Amino acid sequence: MMDTQAQTGLPFMKMHGAGNDFVVIDSRGRGPVMTAGLAQALGDRNRGVGFDQLAEITSSTDADFALTFWNSDGSQAGACGNATRCVSDYVMQDLGLDQVSLVTARGGLRAERAADGRIWVNMGLPQLTWQSIPLAREVDHLHLPLPGDPVAIGMGNPHCVHFVPDAEALDLATLGQQIEHDPLFPQRTNVEFASLLSPCRMRMRVWERGTGITLACGSGACATAVAAHLRGMIGPRVALEVDGGVLEVDWREDGVWLTGPVARVFDGILTPDYLAAHR
């Protein structure tokens, strides 16, 4: 498929959810075109398009569509909540539906449009065993043997959640990179720092594995909400103030639901020459 696209160009969309920005490629009906090399090239904000994650939509026999996620370093991500919300909004409009089913590496998920127009996505049940998160060895995931007494939560990708007095007063770039590569996380990890503002509101900042500091992270918001609830800090529903806006999480019996703003910013076409250079 890449040869054909290299001759005709490849359409894409730029979207964001609370500043968490994505390149989205709709490959339904033709098969996937993305490679690690092309994802890494597109992720370069100077020589490509730039994104926190790339989402490729493909056809599915088991759901309305399937999604594959790529980080800007060319690695794959198992889950991406804000991209899932953005793409679900796009597919709902395309299909004329108010709810859709989708398949990711996380498994089958569901998204729906609420009466106020916001898109909610069920990110599935959290992964709460050391094997499923995953961790390198058996430890108490609610009290990791790391500085700051963080919590490990799996949401289709691993998260290391720290609760701190002031999420603003720390060197996120340095700490995030160090913790991402800690040997306790065999697949690396996303890193969150969160402060409690009230029983139903938190401030969260995030370092995403394979990308770095981002303005928001949907799966990170879910992991932070789950970790805070398990620690007895909040109830099952919470609003999280992230650098790019506000996300809401509701941990229900059927999974962890996420909502927040979505935006389709612009559409473009990757040129044949660019595609040929980054096969």
Task: Tell me about this structure.
This protein has helices at about 1-10, 35-45, 80-95, 170-180, 220-230, 270-275; strands spanning about 10-15, 20-25, 55-60, 65-70, 75, 100-105, 105-115, 120, 150-155, 160-165, 190-200, 200-210, 210-215, 235-240, 245-250, 255-260, 265-270. It is of the alpha+beta class and about 280 residues long. The protein folds into 2 domains: about 1-115 and about 260-275, Diaminopimelate Epimerase, Chain A, domain 1 (Roll), CATH 3.10.310.10; about 150-255, Diaminopimelate Epimerase, Chain A, domain 1 (Roll). The protein has a 17-stranded mixed β-sheet that branches.
Quick structural gist:
The protein has 279 residues and is an alpha+beta fold. 21% of the residues lie in helices and 38% in strands. The protein has two domains: 2-114 and 262-277, Diaminopimelate Epimerase, Chain A, domain 1 (Roll); 151-253, Roll (Diaminopimelate Epimerase, Chain A, domain 1), CATH 3.10.310.
Per CATH, the superfamily of the largest domain is Diaminopimelate Epimerase, Chain A, domain 1
The helix fraction, in percent, is: 10-25%
Q: What CATH architecture of the largest domain do you see?
A: Roll
Mean pLDDT, all residues: 95
Largest sheet: 17 strands, mixed
Compute the CA-based radius of gyration.
18 Å
Segments where pLDDT lies below 50 for 5+ residues?
A: none
Order of helices and strands: HEEHEEEHEEEEEHEEEHEEEEH
CATH fold category name of the largest domain: Diaminopimelate Epimerase, Chain A, domain 1
- The number of helical elements comes to 6
End-to-end separation: 11 Å
Shape: globular
What's the CATH first level of the largest domain? Alpha Beta
Number of domains: 2
| Strand composition percent | 35-45%
Q: What structural category arises from helix and sheet content?
A: alpha+beta
Number of strands: 17
